[in-house]
Amino acid sequence: MTSNHSAYPASNLTWQILNHANESNYAVGAYNCYNNDGIMAVIRAAERKRSAAIIQLFPWTLHFQGIEFVRYVVSAAHAASVPVAVHLDHCIKLEDVELALTLPFDSIMIDASTFDEEANIRHSKSVVERAQKLNITIEAEMGRIEGGEDGLPTVDMDSVMTRPKDAEIFVQQTGVHFLAPSFGNIHGGYPAGGPEGAWDLVRLTAIGKLVSDSTPLVLHGTHPVSDELFQKAIECGVRKINLNRTVRDDYTKFVAENAGSLELTTLKMQGVEIYAKSIERMMDILGSPGRY
Ligand SMILES: [Zn+2]
């Protein structure tokens, strides 16, 4: 990595992946991985489908698996024959942001959504300025996406959704590259009625019209979302779709049922294959195959 990134953000891999998707109206999955099986599954699926992909880690990985694991993930991803970026999801704590900026992530999501709006803008802007020097791009969340996800704080149902005009001002003032709006999407599962009942698609459409040409939108809270609703989100300008249990449940079930009877080598090979198949199925829904 050089210190001169005059073409930033066009020099950044996540930016390249999501802007390619923006130009051709499809979305790329950002797959939350917790272990090496997940990393292998994303890369294999991406190469077989000739699709871009984004591997997402949580700050949990920084602390539990450590920074050498992060370096392994980045080198494996960047060695793929198709574009595979590595992104840090929901970076909440300031010390985690500091640590992440010392690591070879392609992009980082700054989750300052528990701050008030002004503090969110100030914080996001200052991180964007520093990330530019490192050729890292930044995703930010506006409003508050509800629900618990692997250590995220759970908040009340009456929290704020993103106002379209505010989204436009937010991206102008902060310079963030990707925006995760809150429009009724919920982390960690939906109440009765599902996302069909919870999502405010009129709001998402309005946000997309104002910002998505220059700032691809990110969808959080996808467990579960129907194929049709994913298509609607893509029509609104969503280009990065965060996927966690949706592509991981079949793998988890297989491991749970077979860990006692299969050799670890066999368990791992078959487990990665099942995991990759789930990811490939999702790539087909998002329209990302055959682009590279
Ligand atoms: Zn999220």
Automatic annotation (TrEMBL):
Keywords for this protein: Glycolysis, Lyase, Metal-binding, Zinc
Entry annotation: catalytic residues: D89
MF terms (GO), sorted A to Z: fructose-bisphosphate aldolase activity; zinc ion binding
Short name of one Pfam family: F_bP_aldolase
Enzyme class: lyase
Catalyzed chemical reaction(s): beta-D-fructose 1,6-bisphosphate = D-glyceraldehyde 3-phosphate + dihydroxyacetone phosphate
Record Gene3D superfamilies: Aldolase class I
Binding residues annotated for Zn(2+) 1, in chain numbering: H90, H187, H220
Domain of life: Eukaryota
Residue sites binding Zn(2+) 2 per the record: D111, E141
Cofactor: Zn(2+)
InterPro entries on file: Aldolase_TIM, Class_II_FBP_aldolase, FBA_II
Cofactor binding comment, as recorded: Binds 2 Zn(2+) ions per subunit. One is catalytic and the other provides a structural contribution.
Family per similarity comment: Belongs to the class II fructose-bisphosphate aldolase family.
Function according to Swiss-Prot or TrEMBL: Catalyzes the aldol condensation of dihydroxyacetone phosphate (DHAP or glycerone-phosphate) with glyceraldehyde 3-phosphate (G3P) to form fructose 1,6-bisphosphate (FBP) in gluconeogenesis and the reverse reaction in glycolysis.
Name this polypeptide is given: Fructose-bisphosphate aldolase
Organism: Aspergillus ruber (strain CBS 135680)
Taxonomic lineage from the root: Eukaryota, Fungi, Dikarya, Ascomycota, Pezizomycotina
